[in-house]
Each structure stands twice: as structure tokens, then as C-alpha cells.
TrEMBL record:
Signal peptide annotation: 1-21
Gene Ontology terms, MF aspect: metal ion binding
Record keywords, A-Z: Magnesium, Metal-binding, Signal
Cofactor(s) in the UniProt record: Mg(2+)
Record-linked Pfam families: RraA-like (PF03737)
Residues that, per the record, bind Mg(2+): 179
InterPro entries per record: RraA/RraA-like, RraA/RraA-like_sf
Annotated positions binding substrate: 156-159, 178
Name assigned to this protein: Regulator of RNase E activity RraA
Organism: Flagellimonas taeanensis
SUPFAM superfamilies: RraA-like (SSF89562)
Length: 312
């Protein structure tokens, strides 16, 4: 019995210590655990630093192609659609910084403010500015606002300008925004959101930064890469981003080859639209060898390595 009491006391102490050490923002150590499959460079906050060049290439990837790639990898809950978009004709990619919001509860809000003060955050203004302080170039601010629009407007034009100044990017909010006219005036800024309303944020509180969140039907982790365009948003685990881009680019080249051969009437639509024969695959490989390096979306070495891997 004495040993049992010791175990219970020790367990209570460990739970208390963990709770006491938990801040508003996830620790770098926790983010590294969440993204342990990533083996590359990281930011100081622990998030994977997916290269800018890869983010640029990803803008040309189709949402359906990215979705299909992730489904084949077993990631079935990474897409969310039905957005209002500030600039629908523009695509956006970036590294995710997450934030979670919940309905206001005074005692919990007080704890969040105390924890925020220990993280040297502004506790006089609204806590919806806190995630913006962490943004760096190439980030996308992604927030779970539980779909609330009226009194759930997470930003207006002032915070929109601050977001763009820090990230040179935009936002994805499962919630509302206000002052869309002002947001439209921010050159280069873009946003995906569930609705606009003139109301201010009230009876809603920030609860965490850089923790796993839910955005509609998608689960999002800090450091994910987001691909957003007029057809929806896909949240891509950082360790799969490079393979997804290269695989999707190969599919694009296969489409170009197929379209060309159909115009030339070398193959029928049925032959191109089904599993290719050895002869068509060989023709495709020869076509790739003649394809100009300047038009390739990837390097010639990346292409050759990928094609060689498929022969193994």
C-alpha cells in the first residue's frame, strides 16, 4: 500500500509538472515529435523548413493530383473545400503555422493570458495577434475557428497587413474575416475563409499555437505544407512534400506526351487512357530524353533518378 501511494504521488507530480510546463505555443521538442519523419532543416520553433524552391514548384500542382497522391499514401483526411477566397485566380503555398480558437470561457482565457505573458506576448490587445508574431517569410497562418463567422472574424485589414509584412503570404481560416475591401488592397496577400462579417471578434478565444488542429474535414500539423487554389486546400505532411511534387510533375509530363501522341494519331484515346503497354512506356522514355531541359519542371537528374527508381 505504501508503494502504491508513492506511485500515485509521483504520478500526480509528473502530471502537474507537465501541465505547468505547457505554454500556449507548442515547444520545439513537441513539434519535432509531431514531424519526426522530416529529416531536413528546421526553424528555431521546430517546424520543418521545406525549401522555398519546392513551394514555388508546388503552386503548379493540381489539387486533385495532390489529393490522390496523399490518398495512396494513406492520408485520407487532408483536403478541405467550400471556401471564399480573396483572390480566386491565385494559388498559394507555404509552411503552416497553426492556431486554435474556441468559444470564450473566462477561467480558461485567464490561464491563456498568464501563459502568454510568460511567453512575452501582448496581453493588453487581442490574443488573435499572437500567431502573427511567429510568422516568417513563406509561412501560412492556418486557424481552426470552428466555422464561426458572426463575431468570429479573426482578422481585418490591420492584422492582414501585419500577416503579409511577416510572411509575404496569406491565411486559411475555418472561420470569418472582416473588412474584405481592406484585405483586397494588400498587394500579394491572399486568404481562404468561410465567410465575411462586419462584426468584431468576441466571445471567442485563442487556446493554442502550433498544435495539431482540425480545419473542416482536414487535420493540420504545424510545419505541414499547404497547397491552396480556387479548387480547395490540401495540407501535405512535410516529409511527403518533395515526393508529391516530383510525382505530380511526372504525371504532368505524361499528360503532355499523351496529348501530343493523340494529336499525331499515333495512339488511340483508349490506348492512352488505360495502362500503357511496354511499347508506349518506351516511347514515353524516349520522348523524355528529347524534351528540352529548359521546359522541365524538375532538374534532369531528378527526372532520371525518378525514372530509374520505377524500373527497380
Amino acid at each position: 500500500m505504501k508503494n502504491l501511494r508513492i506511485v500515485l504521488v509521483l504520478g500526480s507530480f509528473l502530471v502537474f509538472f507537465h501541465a505547468k510546463s505547457q505554454g500556449v505555443t507548442a515547444s520545439p521538442e513537441y513539434i519535432k515529435e509531431l514531424t519526426s519523419n522530416w529529416t531536413g532543416e528546421r526553424f528555431a520553433d521546430g517546424r520543418p523548413k521545406v525549401p522555398d524552391a519546392l513551394l514555388k514548384r508546388m503552386k503548379k500542382i493540381q489539387i486533385e493530383e495532390a489529393w490522390g497522391f496523399l490518398r495512396r499514401k494513406g492520408y485520407n483526411n487532408q483536403y478541405e473545400g467550400e471556401w471564399e477566397i480573396i483572390h480566386p485566380d491565385s494559388a498559394m503555398t507555404g509552411r503552416v503555422v497553426t492556431a486554435q480558437y474556441m468559444p470564450l470561457r473566462p477561467d480558461y482565457q485567464q490561464l491563456v493570458k498568464l501563459k502568454g505573458a510568460k511567453e512575452n506576448r501582448d496581453t493588453i490587445g487581442g490574443s488573435n495577434s499572437w500567431p502573427i508574431q511567429q510568422l516568417v517569410h513563406g509561412d501560412v497562418y492556418v486557424a481552426d475557428g470552428y466555422g464561426r463567422i458572426i463575431d468570429g472574424t479573426l482578422i481585418g485589414s490591420n492584422l492582414g497587413n501585419a500577416i503579409y509584412a511577416n510572411s509575404k503570404n496569406g491565411v486559411i481560416f475555418d472561420g470569418g474575416v472582416r473588412d474584405v475591401a481592406g484585405l483586397l488592397d494588400i498587394e500579394g496577400f491572399n486568404g481562404w475563409y468561410k465567410g465575411a462579417d462586419p462584426s468584431y471578434l468576441q466571445e471567442e478565444m485563442l487556446t493554442s499555437i502550433n498544435m495539431p488542429i482540425r480545419v473542416g474535414r482536414a487535420i493540420v500539423l504545424p510545419g505541414d505544407v499547404v497547397l491552396a487554389n480556387q479548387h480547395g486546400t490540401v495540407f501535405i505532411p512535410s516529409h511527403l512534400a518533395s515526393e508529391l511534387v516530383l510525382s505530380s510533375e511526372i504525371v504532368g509530363l505524361r499528360d503532355l506526351f499523351g496529348f501530343q501522341r493523340l494529336r499525331e494519331k499515333k495512339y488511340t484515346a483508349g490506348q492512352i487512357d488505360t495502362r500503357w503497354t511496354k511499347e508506349i512506356n518506351a516511347d514515353f522514355e524516349n520522348w523524355l530524353k528529347e524534351y528540352p531541359d529548359s521546359k522541365l519542371p524538375m532538374t534532369r537528374k531528378e527526372l532520371n533518378d525518378y525514372m530509374a527508381s520505377k524500373k527497380d
